[in-house]
From TrEMBL:
SUPFAM superfamilies reported in the protein's UniProt record: HAD-like (SSF56784)
UniProt organism field: Lysinibacillus pakistanensis
Gene3D superfamilies in the record: HAD superfamily/HAD-like, SGNH hydrolase
InterPro entries: FkbH_domain (IPR010037), HAD-like_sf (IPR036412), HAD_sf (IPR023214), HAD_SF_ppase_IIIC (IPR010033), SGNH_hydro_sf (IPR036514)
Name of the molecule in the record: HAD-IIIC family phosphatase
Coiled-coil zones: none
């Protein structure tokens, strides 16, 4: 399967490998086009199989007005595939963008939307002219303005043809193809675009992101075997430098890193200390398991410490036997084969599904600190006489915010990332979250948590629809980092008391059984004694006897 992720790959190989891939989901994609898209579909559909998806593709007619009148809302994604050359001589970039906004509003904007920009050099003689006397000036401005559309449409992402074309060079343009079918992109660029859409963009728009990468060391992060060659004998090739740089940036943007290596622990620590040419340092790895245990056992241990499911982890190793053993023992884990030079490992990693970042993750450092703090909490719990004594020693502070608009992005992130304590598995899009926040029928609660060891930030949310005297909890989400401290009980208890004071008498919880949300379902079964709000408050009150945390309700007005 790694051939699909390499820098160079072929359509023949894609179609050949598709037969061995397992399909988990069917997704419907609607193409709004003024440019032929069928060239991409040939590879797009089999490539989507690698991400476990069967892609059903429907097309609009060719129409420069892109006036759809679309009534079918069953599509998973809308993709605008535009030949922007058709508009260059008719509209200035700013006017085109305003017109485009009105057209985008015709589709269901709570669904993901993809739209392409345009490559700067699509004419062979472009280098002979300054941008002011060529179409490049128009394209510069339009591509920049197109990026700003994401400020108005939170579910929108750009298919960056310009970026991929610049990486390929002039061979990305096919003049003959353009003359024959009005399609100027070369086969090479078309194949790269198909992979980018199928393996990077679509998974990022529809599925949770991988949370952690577990790496081997020998012949994976460097060339050589530490136990045999010693620190002086291992080499950091150019490919391995690139790999470490890519991993460093992923870590800075929210993906946790860990090591599982069959080496002596002290040798590994010494290497990470002494190898000054390494871009990754000891502190970049949340956990390091350097021992002779099974790597599957090490990964299970790390998943327990991370407090999330192994299905949110990617394991990278150069040894096919290790990959096969881990996959056999942990079928739901993601795996990736490293190559000896590190060069192809970089491309395989960059093309792997569920790693694409749409936005900067500003809570990455906080999350790693909280996971490490959890190890200290485990130690405190083991020494405490009872659970309440342990919780009291943490000096917890829980703040519950109502209608805090600055928390909407985090509500969306929790829905995408949370698997264990995700009661309804709704996975609302950014547009859906924003729409509910503006709807007076909804109450959006967010929960923050801090203790003597760390500030965990926003770790939970309740999305509640009010219908007369009924409160419908459409979604309840809590980060796995916060579980085990009754934060969900204390938060719901305070929220229900607030609601009963406003005349709410009954409660309904929307819940769906999924592959990994048993903790959330068990919690609901434990506290849901009846639909009467007073009965649930009584059940929670009994659970929270002598609960030592400080719990406060805020609202948007209090924070202005």
């Amino acid at each position: 399967m790694n051939e699909l992720l390499n820098q160079e790959f072929s359509l023949r190989k894609v179609i050949q490998i598709q037969k061995d891939l397992h399909i988990n989901h069917e997704e419907r994609l609607f193409i709004i086009r003024t440019l032929p898209f069928e060239y991409l579909t040939k590879a797009l559909q089999p490539l989507s199989s690698f991400a476990g998806k069967k892609l059903i593709v429907d097309y609009s007619d060719y129409d420069t007005s892109i006036n759809l009148g679309l009534k079918d809302n069953s599509y998973s994604i809308y993709l605008y595939w535009m030949d922007w050359r058709l508009y260059m001589d008719k509209m200035e970039p700013k006017s085109l963008l305003e017109w485009l906004k009105t057209r985008l509003s015709e589709v269901d904007t709570t669904k993901p939307i993809l739209i392409n920009n345009w490559p700067l050099f699509w004419e062979l003689d472009e280098k002979q002219y300054a941008a002011s006397v060529s179409k490049r000036g128009w394209i510069y401005e339009f591509n920049y303005l197109l990026e700003t559309l994401k400020n108005d449409f939170s579910n929108l992402e750009i298919i960056d043809i310009n970026l991929l074309a610049s990486q390929i060079g002039m061979s990305s343009y096919d003049e003959r193809n353009d003359l024959v079918s009005n399609y100027p992109l070369s086969n090479q660029l078309t194949l790269q675009l198909s992979r980018h859409i199928a393996l990077n963009l679509i998974p990022a728009m529809l599925e949770p992101k991988i949370k952690a990468i577990v790496l081997d060391l020998d012949n994976t992060l460097y060339s050589g075997v530490l136990g045999e060659d010693g620190i002086e004998g291992i080499q950091l090739t150019e490919g391995h430098v690139q790999l470490q740089r890519v991993l460093k940036r992923m870590k800075e943007n929210g993906i946790l890193l860990a090591l599982s290596s069959k080496n002596n622990e002290q040798d590994v620590f010494e290497m990470l200390e002494k190898c000054k040419d390494f871009l990754l340092y000891k502190d970049d790895f949340t956990f390091i398991e350097a021992n002779w245990n099974s790597k599957a056992d090490n990964i299970r241990l790390m998943a327990e410490k991370f407090n999330f499911d192994v299905s949110a982890m990617l394991f990278i190793d150069d040894n096919p036997a290790e990959i096969a053993h881990v996959k056999e023992q942990i079928p739901t884990i993601h795996t990736l084969m490293a190559d000896a030079t590190g060069k192809e490992t970089v491309h395989r990693l960059l093309n792997y599904p569920y790693l694409y970042s749409r936005k900067k993750d500003n809570s990455a450092d906080l999350r790693q600190k909280d996971i490490l703090a959890n190890q200290k909490r485990v130690e405190l719990a083991s020494k405490a006489g009872d659970n309440n004594s342990y919780l009291a020693s943490l000096q917890m502070k829980i703040n519950i915010f109502e209608g805090e608009t600055q928390h909407l992005q985090r509500i969306y992130e929790l829905g995408q990332k949370t698997n264990q304590f995700n009661l309804a598995l709704q996975r609302f899009s950014e547009g859906e979250v924003q729409k509910k926040a503006k709807d007076s029928a909804y109450k959006m609660y967010t929960v923050t948590l801090s203790d003597m060891l760390n500030d965990s930030g926003i770790i939970g949310t309740f999305i509640v629809k009010i219908d007369g005297e009924l409160a419908i909890f459409e979604e309840i989400l809590f980060s796995c980092r916060a579980l085990g401290r009754k934060v969900e009980d204390a938060s719901l208890y305070l929220i229900l008391n607030e609601l009963i004071n406003k005349g709410i008498r009954q409660v309904k919880f929307v819940s769906v059984e999924g592959p990994r949300n048993t903790p959330a379902l068990d919690w609901l079964n434990n506290i849901y004694t009846s639909p009467i709000i007073a009965d649930i408050i009584a059940a929670l009150k009994e659970k929270l006897i002598d609960y030592p945390a400080e719990v406060c309700l805020q609202n948007e007005r209090d924070n202005k």
